[in-house]
């Protein structure tokens, strides 16, 4: 078997946002992001960094967080330039 033949049998890399097929919200381990609309610039940084497309935008503005898919990783809170998202204890 050539290297090329063995590579095609390797791992699959799924596209970003593949959680739409797998509701990953139940994976959260005690923390969830909380969005402060007043601090938000609607810059979209959180949207672009979220690995599960759980940040919701409509007409160029953030409208919320879809907790069905949010894993609670905290990347959105870490990357937000205005700290409009903070990690809080899960209700």
UniProtKB/TrEMBL annotation:
Residues 1-33 are annotated as: Disordered. PROSITE patterns: 4FE4S_FER_1, 4FE4S_FER_2. The keyword 4Fe-4S applies. Keywords: 4Fe-4S, Iron, Iron-sulfur, Metal-binding, Repeat. One of its GO terms (molecular function) is metal ion binding. It holds the Pfam family Fer4_21. Residues 31-60, 61-90 form the 4Fe-4S ferredoxin-type domain. Residues 1-29 have a biased composition (Polar residues). This is Ferredoxin. It comes from the Bacteria. Its cofactor is [4Fe-4S] cluster.
